[in-house]
Amino acid sequence: MMQSRRIEILMAAYNGAPYIGEQIDSILQQTDTNWHLTISDDGSTDGTDAIIDEYTRQYSDSVQRVCSGQRFGGAKAHFFWMTQQCEAEYIAYCDDDDTWKADKLEKLRNAMQDAESRLGSNTPILVFSDQTVTDEKLSVIAPSLMRYQKQYFEHFDYRSILMQNVVTGGAMMINRALAKLALECKDPSQVIMHDWWMAAVAARFGEIVYIDEPLGAYRQHGSNSVGAKNVGSAGYVRRMLSGLAHVRRALQRKKAQAAAFEQTYDARLNDADRVFLRGLKKPRSGPLFYWRKRDLIHGSHRLVGMMLLG
C-alpha cells in the first residue's frame, strides 16, 4: 500500500552544531512517523559529528549516520551522493540549520500520494512547500519565503526554472521516478544545485506540486551558503548593480546547466525544447531572446539584468 512507503530523510551536515539538534528534534516530533533519517557529515570541525553520534545512539532505529570517505565541499555534490545511495520510494531533503513544523512530512506525503494517484508512481514528481524566513534565533523575518523572493508558483515551467529556481531543497520531497531520472545527469559539475536540477527535471517530465503554506523555518545566519533574498528591496537591487561581474558569472552558470540538461535529456526533448535550450546556453543569448521569454522571468529587474548581461 502507498501509505506504508517510508520516507527517507537525507541530511547533509557541515558545521551545524549550533542548530542541528533543533532540526533533528523537529523531525522526531513529526505526526507522520513512517520515516528514517540518514545524516552525512562533510568533515565538520565544530562538534557536529558528536551531536549526530549522540542522536544515532539514542534513536538507532530511526536515525543513521553514513560516511562517504570523501570531502564534498558543498551541498550539491553531497546531496547528489546521498541520493545515489538511497533506494527509498520517497526522499525528503533536510538542511542542518532549519526546523520543521510537526505536520510537514504528513502534508508532503499527502500531496505526493494525491499526485501519484492522478499521474501514476512512474511519473517524476516533486512536492515542496513555502517556508517562514527567520533569523538565527527563529524570530520571523518574513512569513513567506516565496513572496519574500517574489517567486511565481501558479505554474511551473522548466524553462522558467532553468532561468530562476523557485524550489528550496529543504522544503521538498521527491519520488523514486524523479530520483532515478535526475540521477541520469551526464555532468553534475555543471549543475548549480541539486534542488534546481530536480525541479527542472520534474517540471519538464513530470509535475511539481506546491503547498502554499510554510511548513518549516528557513533560518538565516552568517554561515548560510545560499540564503533568502528580499529581491524587492532597494538594497538587493543596489548589490546587484554594484556586483555586475557576479551577476554575469551567475548567468554563465545557468547557461552551463542548461547545456547539461540538453545533453542529458536530448532524446526525450522536442523541437521547441531544443530551440529554447540552444538559445539559453549561448554565451550571449541577446536581449531579444529574454524579451520573448519575459513571461517566464520573475520580476522586471531580473528581466533587465538578463537582457543586459545574458
Q: Tell me which CATH architecture of the largest domain applies here.
A: Alpha-Beta Complex
Q: In angstroms, what is the radius of gyration? A: 19 Å
The count of β-strands is 9
**SS-based structural class?**
alpha/beta
For the largest beta-sheet, the strand count, sense and barrel status come to:
9 strands, mixed
End-to-end separation in angstroms reads 49 Å
- Strand % is 15-25%
What is the CATH first-level class name of the largest domain? Alpha Beta
- Indicate the CATH topology of the largest domain: Spore Coat Polysaccharide Biosynthesis Protein SpsA, Chain A
Which whole number gives the mean pLDDT? 92
Total individual domains: 2
Name of the CATH homologous superfamily of the largest domain: Spore Coat Polysaccharide Biosynthesis Protein SpsA, Chain A
Q: Looking at the structure, what is the overall shape?
A: globular
What does this structure look like?
The structure is a single chain. Helix 7 crosses helix 8 and helix 10 (244-265) runs antiparallel to helix 11 (271-280). This protein is an alpha/beta fold. The model has no long low-confidence stretch (mean pLDDT 92). It has 13 helices and nine strands. It has two domains: 6-219, Alpha-Beta Complex (Spore Coat Polysaccharide Biosynthesis Protein SpsA, Chain A); 234-309, no CATH class. Helix 1 (20-28) links the parallel strand 1 and strand 2 (35-41). Strands 1, 2, 3, 4, 5, 6, 7, 8 and 9 form a nine-stranded mixed β-sheet that branches. The chain has helices at 20-28, 48-58, 75-85, 104-119, 145-148, 158-163, 176-182, 194-205, 234-242, 244-265, 271-280, 287-292, 300-309; strands spanning 7-13, 35-41, 63-66, 90-94, 99-100, 125-134, 140-142, 172-175, 207-219. Helices cover 43% and strands 18% of the residues.
